[in-house]
Specification:
Oligomer: single chain
Radius of gyration: 19 Å
Distance between the termini: 40 Å
CATH topology: Rossmann fold
CATH superfamily: NAD(P)-binding Rossmann-like Domain
Largest sheet: 7 strands, parallel
CATH class: Alpha Beta
Number of helices: 7
Shape: globular
Strand order of the largest sheet: 3-2-1-4-5-6-7
Structural class: alpha/beta
CATH architecture: 3-Layer(aba) Sandwich
């Protein structure tokens, strides 16, 4: 039986939707027929006709509430919120300032708190309720040296997901998509070139980075009626995670197909 995700007449908000993973998520929802609204701190060049862009600093609760209220007023509803905004530069924990740690926490955790809280009155008043999706990371559940506070913030976001799924049930479903490494416009620069990207990809069991569209597809699935009984879930989209380090040295493991070098 062929299944098609059709989100026509759904209004979807995506934070950080101007590039990378966020842009891939926004495109996926557009392809599913949804009306998509994205936000970011800077516009993606000339403002596109679709999705509609709003300039918002999601770390500012007043700006977030104004944006959500504006979207709800424009469309009369909000069906899906995707808390995608996030990220962190590689920085040693001891060398970073308290201000740096606070900003990373604000961007990767509190922004999702502000967006979800602002969307709640709209979603809870709708017959169909709504869906909140939080984009987390493999860093939430494994050591994250160099991005310590980022990993901790993503772990907090997963805890928020599970708790809100219970507190806001049954009208609002809350799930998370835990992303592994994703190939974006800046991957080659970040890892030091195509050759280094290939070496990093070899540490993933499937041997490749995810595409932004892979994260978008997971979001569309969780937002759709196909996932009507799924809430409080953390869906891993990471190609199998990472090869255990011992497999590089234990006798006999060289016979395993695809073992990372």
């Amino acid at each position: 039986m062929a299944l098609k995700i059709d989100l026509t007449d759904h209004v979807v908000l995506v934070t950080g939707g101007t590039r990378g993973v966020g842009a891939g998520i926004a495109r996926t929802f557009l392809e599913a027929g949804a009306a998509v609204e994205i936000c970011g701190r800077t516009a993606p060049g000339p403002a596109p006709a679709v999705p509609r862009f709003s300039q918002v600093d999601v770390r500012d609760e007043d700006q977030v509430r104004h944006w959500v209220d504006e979207v709800a007023g424009r469309h009369g509803r909000i069906d899906v919120v995707v808390n995608n905004a996030g990220g962190a530069p590689f920085t040693g924990f001891a060398d970073a300032s308290p201000r740096f740690h606070r900003r990373i926490t604000d961007l990767n955790f509190l922004s999702a708190v502000f967006v979800a809280q602002a969307a709640y009155p709209v979603m809870s008043a709708q017959d169909a309720g709504g869906v909140v999706l939080n984009i987390t990371s493999i860093s939430a559940r494994r050591p994250s040296p160099g991005t310590v506070v980022y990993g901790a913030a993503k772990a907090a976001l997963e805890s928020l997901t599970r708790s809100l799924a219970v507190e806001w049930a049954p009208r609002i479903r809350v799930n998370a998509v835990s992303s592994g490494l994703v190939e974006t416009e800046g991957s080659a620069d970040h890892y030091g070139g195509p050759e280094q990207v290939a070496r990093v990809a070899a540490t993933i069991p499937r041997g490749v980075f995810a595409k932004p569209a892979d994260i978008g597809a997971a979001c569309a699935l969780l937002a759709s009626p196909l996932a009507a009984h799924i809430t409080g879930a953390i869906l891993n989209v990471d190609g199998g995670g990472e090869w255990p380090a011992f497999l590089q040295h234990a006798p006999g493991t060289e016979k395993l197909p695809g073992t990372a070098p």
